[in-house]
């Protein structure tokens, strides 16, 4: 920007241009360009003043006019700068006006261009819309032309197909006319039908001709009778000749197929199979191939099968050997089928159909022949003996053959059987056996049970000791029961093992849950019957021993007016009867214990094995539980009767001991008033010793509520028996003390019963004994202390030896009156 320095009175000639504001504009640079020309003069003057010593302190103020001391201006260029700034402002205003004018012009030009642009865009949009419409019409036209071309192509293709069909029809008619010659005359046929290299083509044409002739004959069947007669007569000749030719051609192909099969020429076999597939969809060829397999026509193969499975011993070789033989045979069959599958896949166009026929033939012929030899259904009327295996042998062989045949079926299924239902076909092979399976299983279990019981009886008879003397063999057997006659947990375990084996067969042979539940229930019911019957009969035998002991005990009861020798002999026999009763008691307790163990085994078996098989079927589990409850209840009923007899046996011996050992002087000593005897009486000692000895086995054999009920009943009977015994004696005070000692002894023993009610009764007996000890005048206080014993006390007071002399009766009457 050019500028010149002028005097203070003239304005600075400034010219600001628009270029100065373009680009990277800086106000500092613009301002510096305006004032830098004036500032150097001021800087020089200020420098000269500083050299002359005129310095102005920093703190002094200078006037706006730029004058200082002595009238010298401090900033002489102020006026020039003011003029410069004013001029600059004026030029800037002019520049802004120019810019505004130019901006207005530019806006007008932009609006004009924008209007023109909008007009152009509108025209372009109209053109584009028209272009799109043109494209749409063109596309529609192209589509129409394409459809027309496609229709033309379809017509052409249809026409070509019709032309080819017409040509083929003409050829077929020509061939048909050849076959419509004299019946049976096939010598003048076209070379096509006699050329071995064109057998496939000849077969195809022959099948078409036969189909055409048969369809035409069918159509003619609904026309007029005359026309039908004329048409059918000609078509019958053609159809007969075609059938004859097809049969001849098929036989020729089968012969070639067989020859190639013997030479293992798979390519030739495949070619023949493809041609034969045109005859009845190849069914005859498939069946012919399967029927010609050696395993179906070679008698030696069938004989070897039976030899592999049964060996030289036949069915008596055992299920293990039969299972091993079946596994070997079925592996050989599966391997043979697998090899045939490879050939079939390479030869036949539909190998799955051939495999279906082959597997069906294997199961229906080869496997069925083996099953007929193995599964000979025995008679349920004349059952085979156990020495010959019994019904169990048949059932075991049935299970083994079913299991192994199922494995074979799965193996054949994995090889490939087409649409053949291998599982259903295999099931059908065993239908005749499975229909009556449950009956045979029950009959087998009954047979095993019967044989087992007979064996036990035979063993008991063999081990029965030889007994001579006055006691017969039957009585001795009842009194000295041998272990073989007693209940055996081992035998019950064997029953369960039989049943478990039968249940495993039920699970194998029953495919449906409902059928399985029904079979399991019937088999388990057999076990319930067996266990219930065996245990009940065992308890009854033990009860018979108790009855024999009771009869023997009653037989040697004698009166008081007998000789000493007779009494001694009777006492000896009574001792023997008591020993027999004790042995019978112990034997019955052992029987009850074994019954409990057997029932526990039965319940555990039901819980572990039977329940899970019955739960899926509604009502089956509950019904079996009810049946088991009934069976156990029958056993418990027999045990309850026997336990009551045991109590009778024990109490009979207790009463015998009391009657023989309890002396009158025990409770009425003539030395009353001297030092009392604090020992229990001999009768008490003998009774407690007997009870301790005989009940030892009861404590071990009985458990839970059975034990509690038995001991409570025995305690009540013992309490009653002791009361009855003591009422036979009279008591003085010393005898009362002796009685109280006996009661203490009895009470300490019955505490082992763990029966609070019995303990309470014997505690009251101890209190009751005080009626013999206290003075007559103190009896009233005894009643007041324990009113619950009043009834028994009144009866016992009468046993005091001073009852009459002390006039206790009148005293008691006054006491009762006052109360």
From TrEMBL:
Matching Pfam families: Sec10_HB, Sec10_N
Residue ranges of the region described as Disordered: 44-64
Q: Some GO term, biological process aspect, for this entry: which one?
A: Golgi to plasma membrane transport
Q: Name one GO cellular component term.
A: exocyst
Entry keyword annotation includes Cell membrane: no
Statement: the UniProt record of this protein carries the keyword Coiled coil = yes
Occurrences of domain Exocyst complex component Sec10-like alpha-helical bundle (ranges): 201-811
- Write the record's keywords in alphabetical order, separated by commas: Coiled coil, Exocytosis, Transport
Query: Which InterPro entries does the UniProt record give?
Result: Sec10-like, Sec10_HB, Sec10_N
Give the Exocyst complex component Sec10 N-terminal domain ranges.
79-195
Q: Which family does it belong to?
A: Belongs to the SEC10 family.
The name this protein carries in UniProt is Exocyst complex component 5
Source species, please? Rhynchospora pubera
């Amino acid at each position: 920007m050019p500028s010149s320095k002028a005097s203070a009175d003239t304005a600075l000639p400034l010219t600001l241009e628009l270029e100065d504001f373009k680009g990277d504009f800086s106000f500092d640079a613009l301002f510096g360009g305006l004032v830098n020309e004036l500032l150097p003069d001021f800087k020089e003057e200020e420098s000269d003043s500083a050299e002359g010593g005129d310095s102005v302190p920093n703190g002094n103020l200078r006037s706006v006019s730029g004058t200082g001391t002595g009238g010298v201006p401090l900033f002489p260029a102020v006026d020039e700068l003011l003029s410069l700034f004013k001029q600059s402002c004026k030029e800037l205003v002019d520049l802004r006006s120019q810019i505004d004018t130019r901006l207005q012009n530019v806006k007008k030009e932009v609006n004009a261009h924008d209007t023109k642009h909008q007009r152009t865009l509108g025209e372009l949009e109209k053109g584009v819309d028209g272009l799109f419409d043109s494209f749409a019409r063109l596309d529609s036209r192209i589509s129409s032309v394409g459809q027309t071309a496609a229709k033309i192509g379809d017509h052409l293709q249809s026409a070509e197909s019709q032309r080819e069909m017409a040509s083929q029809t003409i050829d077929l008619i020509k061939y048909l006319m050849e076959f419509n010659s004299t019946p049976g005359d096939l010598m003048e046929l076209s070379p096509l039908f006699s050329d071995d290299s064109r057998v496939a083509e000849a077969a195809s044409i022959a099948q078409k001709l036969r189909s055409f002739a048969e369809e035409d004959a069918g159509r003619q069947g609904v026309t007029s009778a005359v026309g039908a007669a004329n048409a059918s007569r000609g078509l019958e000749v053609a159809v007969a000749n075609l059938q004859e030719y097809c049969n001849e051609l098929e036989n020729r192909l089968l012969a070639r197929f067989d020859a190639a099969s013997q030479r293992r020429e798979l390519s030739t076999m495949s070619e023949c199979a493809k041609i034969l597939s045109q005859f009845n969809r190849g069914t005859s060829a498939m069946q012919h191939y399967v029927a010609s397999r050696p395993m179906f026509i070679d008698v030696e193969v069938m004989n070897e099968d039976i030899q592999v499975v049964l060996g030289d011993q036949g069915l008596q070789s055992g299920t293990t050997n039969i299972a091993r033989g079946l596994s070997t045979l079925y592996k050989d069959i599966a391997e043979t089928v697998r090899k045939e599958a490879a050939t079939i896949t390479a030869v036949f166009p539909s190998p799955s159909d051939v495999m279906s026929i082959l597997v069906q033939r294997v199961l229906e012929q080869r496997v069925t022949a083996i099953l007929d030899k193995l599964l000979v259904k025995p008679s349920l009327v004349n059952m085979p003996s156990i020495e010959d295996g019994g019904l169990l042998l048949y059932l075991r062989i049935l299970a083994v053959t079913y299991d192994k045949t199922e494995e074979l079926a799965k193996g054949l299924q994995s090889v490939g059987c087409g649409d053949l239902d291998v599982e259903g076909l295999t099931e059908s092979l065993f239908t005749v056996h499975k229909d009556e399976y449950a009956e045979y299983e029950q009959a087998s279990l009954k047979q095993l049970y019967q044989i087992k019981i007979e064996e036990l009886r035979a063993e008991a008879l063999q081990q029965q000791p030889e007994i001579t003397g006055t006691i017969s063999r039957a009585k001795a057997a009842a009194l000295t029961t041998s272990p073989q006659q007693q209940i055996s947990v081992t035998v019950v375990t064997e029953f369960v093992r039989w049943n478990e084996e039968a249940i495993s067969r039920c699970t194998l042979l029953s495919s449906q849950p409902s059928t399985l539940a029904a079979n399991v229930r019937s088999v388990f019911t057999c076990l319930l019957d067996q266990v219930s019957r065996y245990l009940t009969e065992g308890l009854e035998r033990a009860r018979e021993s108790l009855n024999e002991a009771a009869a023997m005990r009653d037989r040697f009861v004698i009166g008081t007016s007998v000789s000493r020798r007779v009494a001694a002999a009777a006492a000896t026999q009574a001792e023997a009867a008591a020993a027999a009763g004790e042995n019978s008691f112990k034997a019955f307790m052992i029987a009850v214990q074994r019954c409990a163990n057997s029932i526990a085994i039965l319940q555990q078996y039901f819980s572990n094995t039977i329940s899970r098989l019955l739960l899926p079927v509604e009502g089956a589990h509950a019904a079996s539980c009810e049946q088991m409850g009934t069976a156990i209840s029958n056993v418990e009923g027999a045990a309850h009767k026997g336990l009551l007899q045991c109590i009778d046996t024990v109490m009979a011996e207790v009463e015998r001991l009391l009657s023989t050992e309890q002396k009158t002087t025990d409770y009425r000593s003539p030395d009353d008033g001297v030092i009392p005897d604090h020992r229990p009486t001999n009768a008490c000692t003998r009774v407690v010793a007997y009870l301790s000895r005989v009940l030892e086995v009861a404590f071990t054999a009985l458990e839970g509520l059975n034990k509690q009920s038995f001991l409570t009943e025995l305690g009540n009977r013992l309490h009653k028996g002791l009361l009855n015994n003591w009422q036979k004696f009279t008591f003085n005070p010393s005898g009362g003390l002796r009685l109280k000692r006996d009661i203490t002894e009895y009470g300490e023993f019955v505490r082992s019963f763990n029966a609070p009610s019995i303990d309470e009764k014997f505690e009251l007996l101890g209190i009751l004994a005080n009626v013999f000890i206290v003075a007559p005048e103190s009896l009233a206080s005894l009643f007041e202390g324990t009113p619950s014993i009043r009834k028994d006390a009144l009866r016992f007071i009468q046993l005091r030896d001073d009852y009459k002399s002390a006039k206790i009766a009148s005293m008691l009457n006054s006491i009762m009156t006052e109360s």
